[in-house]
Fold this sequence. Notes:
Blueprint: H1 3-13, H2 19-29, H3 32-37, H4 40-44, H5 50-59, H6 63-75, E1 79-82, H7 90-93, E2 101-106, E3 115-120, H8 126-139, E4 145-148, H9 154-164, E5 169-172, H10 186-192, E6 196-200, H11 212-222, E7 226-230, H12 237-247, E8 251-254, H13 265-272, E9 277-278, H14 282-289, H15 312-321, E10 328-329, H16 330-337, H17 341-353, E11 357-360, E12 364-367
Parallel strand pairs: 3-4, 3-7, 4-5, 5-6, 7-8, 8-9
Antiparallel strand pairs: 1-2, 2-6, 10-12, 11-12
Helix pairs in contact: 1-6, 8-9, 11-12
Amino acid sequence: MDDEKIYQVALSMVPGIGDITAKTLVSYCGSAKEVFKKNRNHLSKIPGIGQINADKILSFNDFSTAEAEINKCIKHKIEILFFTDSSYPKKLKHAPDSPSVLFYRGTANLNNYKTVAIVGTRKSTGYGREFTEKIVEKLAPHNALIVSGLAYGIDINAHKAALKYGLDTIGVMASGLDIIYPDMHRRIATEMLHHGGLLTELEIGMKPEAHNFPSRNRIIAGMSDVTIVIEAAKKGGALITAEIANSYSRDVFALPGDIGKMFSVGCNNLIKSNKAHLLTSIEDIEYIMNWESRSNQPNSEDKYYDYSKLTDEERTVIETLKLTTDGMILDELSWKSQIPLNKIASILLNMEFNGVVKTIPGKKYRLK
Length: 368
């Protein structure tokens, strides 16, 4: 068993040490194992840690529970993704409150070039279900990864449409991966394991408690380039997801609806308050996101570049710049990509020379 993995899971189990603090500790110490090896004086001097948190870490000795959790995951064929792992969703990693540990079972690439979240009311209408299937069908040429919450209504319709049109789809769960909720979606969830997957931040055996649902919405929004809201009441989980996506500076689209219908209010308000782009067709997404269908680019991995010719750091820069359509200044790009300033400047120069990025007014960089 991987020794470091035990320490990674153990760090997530330390009482009072949340995701943000855990990531700060690893950033300063270099690894989860080193966090537990540092002395009290060293830990207490890390910004935001202090003596109380340092004592919590040093007093933790239940590593057997962490090891048992790993063994359960192995038994259930579940992959444990720590935020430093290459297969951890990079877009989600950039969100400040992203989980330090994820549990994943499936076949999809969680770092798909185009990832689209589709959310909405559990009491969907024919109008909403029809549009959901239509927009997923139009996303098929983009080879988009479809993300939703496996819930009744719009969520399950998005998953079904993705399977129908040959797209991978991820269900982000508010429970452990051994508990499918609602149970009537078990067949679809099982099918998704072979054409996408299931993802959660919760350990095996954790039940779908009410407070878990708003929390899991940050995963849906954080790992996606785009969040689409299809039918929503004045309040609800879909609007929470949209708010989170906006806080992450991700693009949100909403389907407009009849002003007299309860489940049009949320979408119409998002559009009215400029918190979402109006969505009437795939062309709206393609225009705002500057996306071009892969069917028009058969010989390249995406519109702009050939991944096989890029270094790991260049790929990281691209993934970071995908998070914005407005561009990033050098300092922000360095911080979000975790590439030192003195190094990223030369990387950008080379990428600009090769036609991958360009400079725009305000001393910003964006994908070309």
